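Regression report. Comparing outputs from two consecutive submissions.

Submission 1:
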Amino acid sequence: MKDLTKIILLLTIFLAGCSDERGTQSEIDHHFTIAVIPDTQNMVDYRHQKAEGFAIDSANLFIEQMEFIAANTKPNGGEIEFVTSVGDVWQHTDVYLDPEHEARGFPAILSDPRLGIENILTGLKEFELPLTRRGYNILAATGVPFGVAPGNHDYDTGYQYNPFPGDPDPRARISEEGLIPNRHVGGYLTFNDMFGPDSEYFSNKSWYIDSFHGGVNSAQIFKAGGYTFLHFSFEMQAGDDVLDWAQRVIDKNPGLPTMMSTHDYLNPSGERLPSPAYDFASVDPLGHNSAEDIWNDFIRKNDQIFMILSGHQIGQSLRIDKNDAGNSVYQILSDYQGRGMAANPPADQERITGIGDGWIRLMKFDTSGEVPKIDVRTYSTYYKKYSKEFENYVSWYRDMEQPDMADSEFLSADHYTLELRNFRNRFGEPK
C-alpha cells in the first residue's frame, strides 16, 4: 500500500510538471504588432496650421496618430508591443552651424530661404518642438518601448554642397549645368535634447540599452511573441563608427532577432540608393556610408538582423535579400508624407500640399505557426480605414507614388503578408 501511495505521489508530481510546462506555452501571446511611424514633418510643420492660413490644423493629424498608437499599445489592452519612428519628426532645422562643418567650409542654408531665419526659429521652437513633445508624451505615458531615428530635417542644420570649390556663385553653375545640388546635415543638439539617453523618454528605462553620438543612434530591447527582440535606431546613412558601435551591441546580445530603423535606406523602386539631393556618402564619405555599404559591411554579415525599416523617399517598397548565412532580410520602405487629401480635396485646389493624411504602418506578427508571419498593413488614423478598405486609395495616391504600378500592385504594396521562413531555425522556439 505504501508503494502504491508513492507511485501515485510521483505520478501526481510528474503530471503537475507537465501541466506547468503546457501552461507556460499556452500563456505565450503569439500575436503582437509593431507600429512604424513614417515621416511626420509635414503634419508638424508650423506653416500647415490654420493660424498660418492653411486649410486645417495638421497638428491634429499628428496628435490623432499618436493617440491611436497609444490606445492600441499592449499596456492599454491592444497588441502594439513596440513603436519605431523612421525620422523627419519635425520640419525645420534650427540653423545652428556647428564648428566642424564651418571649419570645412560648408555654408549653412535655410530649409526655405523665403521664410527668413527668425520665422523658422520661431516656428520650430515655439510650435514644432513643443508639438512633437506633446505627441511623444502621449506615447511615453503608455510605457511601451519605442525608438526614434533622426531624419535630415531633425539635425541642427543643413549645408549646401559646393561641387565647384571657390566658385562665388555655385548655385548659378548648378542650375546652368543641370546638376542637382547635394545637401548635407550636421549637429545633434536639438535631436539629442529631445530624444537623448538622458531625456524623459529614455532615462532609466530598462529596455533602452545603449546609445551613440548622444542619442541619434540608440538600441532597445523588447519582448513579444515568445521572443526577445533587439532594435536599432540609426542616424541617416550611418558612418563606420556607428556600425562599430552597433556591432558591439550585437556581440553583447547574440542570437536575438534584430531589426533596424533608419531614415534613408530604400527608394520606391526597392533599390538601396539615396535620393539625388541627399547623398551624404558622396559628400562626406569619411562620415557616412551608403545603404549598399551598410548592407555589405554590417547587415549581411550579422545573421540575427532580419528586418530594416526606412522612410525619407516618398512611397513604399519591399526588398528581400539573402544574407551571408543564406537567410532572408526583409527591407521595407514606407513614407506617406506627400499625401494631402485631408486638407486639399481635388475639387478645392489643383496643387496638393502633403501632410500625410494620417497613414502609418502596422506590422502584425504571428509566431504561433512553424513559419511565423507578419501581416503588413497600412492604416490611416484620419480616415480610420486600412488601405484596402479605402475606396479612393489608388485614384488619390498611386500616380504620385508609383505611377508605373497597376491598381492591384499598388494595393498589394501596402497590404501583404511576409512568411518568416527559417525564423525558428535562426532564433529558436518561442518561450
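Submission 2:
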Amino acid sequence: MEFDTIAAISTPIGEGAISIVRLSGPEAVSIADTLFIGKSLPEVESHTIHYGKVMEPTSEIVADEVMVSVMRAPKTFTCEDIVEINCHGGVTAVSRILEIVLENGARLADPGEFTKRAFLNGRIDLSQAEAVMDVIQSKTDQAMNVALHQLDGKLSKLITELRQALIETIAHVEVNIDYPEYDDVEEMSHDMMEEKTAFVHDEIDRLLQVAKQGKILREGIKTAIIGRPNVGKSSLMNSLVQEERAIVTDVPGTTRDVIEEYVNVRGIPLQLIDTAGIRETKDIVEKIGVERSHQILAEADLVLFMLNHNEPLTDDDRQIFALLEDLNYIVIINKIDLEQQIDIEEIKSLAKDNALITTSLIEEKGIDDLEAALAHLFFSKDIATEDGTYVSNVRHIQLLKQSKEALEEATNALALNMPLDIVQIDIRRTWEYLGEIIGDTASESLIDQLFSQFCLGK
C-alpha cells in the first residue's frame, strides 16, 4: 500500500532540551535532504544519525542546528522510510522546521496517522495500536505494564488463537455439509461442537473476570472525598497527593469548589476529588459547592466518607449514609488523636459491610490502612498477572461480552438439538466480534474514529 509523505511534531510543544519533527513516507528522505546541510541523506546507512543544519528554503539563513535520524523501510514503526529531525526545544525552532518540511512537499499528518500507517501496513493490529495510546496515557507503573503487554501482542495472540479454534469448527461443519461423500472427514457432532466452543467460552469468561481490574488500571477510579465541613477532607487529599494541593483551615466551608488530582495508590490510579462539605448552608457560593458535591457523588466509582472522631454523628451524616447505600464507599473516622465523641457501633451498623478506617491525619496515622482497604476493595489478588492478558479497553470489553453472548446462544441451540449449520451462525458471529478487537473485521469508519483520538505526531 503506497501513501504520501506526512510530517508532524512528535514531542510536546513547549520549552525543553530537544524537539522532534518526524516524517514518514516514500519521499521522507529526499524531502529532508533538500533542506539539510550535511551528509547526503539518500546515501547514508539506515538507522544512523547525522549532524548538520536546516536552511530556510528561499534564503540561505540557518533555521537551526539539528541531528537527523534516517530509518529505511521496512524496519521502522510505520514500515515506511522515516526521518526524525532533532532540533532545539522550544516553540519557535520546531514550528519553523515543520513549516520548512511542509513547504518542501510533505503533508501535515492527521492525529494518530503514524500509528494508523503501522496498522494498515501490517506491523501491528488494532488492539496493539490502541495500546500505543494507553502507554502514553498511563498514570501508574501497573497501568504501563498492562499497556506494554498489550502492545507486545499478548492479547492479540490469544484472540487470534480463539478465532482459529472457531474457524476450524466452522470449516469442519461446512465440509460435512458440502462434501458428505468424504468418508475420511470425521462428522461434526453436537457434542464435538460443544466441546470445541466451550474452550473459547471459558477463555473469554476469564478475560472478562479481570476486565474490571484492567479498566481501573487504564482509566483510574473516580474517587470522591465527602463529609461535613471541617472533618479533614482537604487534609486527606494532601496526604494522598503528598503536597499542599487543597487549603486546610479550621474554618468550616473553606473548600467552595471541586479540586481534582490523580494519585498512585499501590499501583491503582485514583482520580481524587475533594468536594465542598455537605451541609445545609445559606452562603450562596458554598451552596453551589455543596450542589456540585452531590453531582460528583452520583458519578463516583468510589466514595471516601469522612467523619469526625470528636463529634457526635449528626442528621447530615445519617443522610449521607442514605445517599451512599448503593455505592462503593469506605468510612474514614478522622481525628482519633482527639477525645471520642462519635458512636462507633452506630457507624458500623450504618456502614454495614463497607470498610471502616480510623485516621489521625495530623499525626499521619491510618493512611497505610486506607491504602490497603482501597487495594482490597478493587483487587482481590495481586494486580500483575503472569501472562499480562488484562483487558482494559472499553471497546474490547464490550466485544468480548457480545462474543460470550453469541457463544451462549450457540450452546443453547445445541442443547435444543438444532442443526449444526444453524448453530454455526452464532459461532461465526463470535469469530467476527473477536476480529473487531484486532481489526480483522473492523469497519473503515471505526478505524478512522479510533485513530482520530490519538495525539498529533503519534
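Expected: both submissions complete independently.
Actual: both completed, but the second showed a warning that disappeared on reload.
Relevant detail on submission 2: The chain has three domains: 6-109, 129-210+389-451, 220-378.
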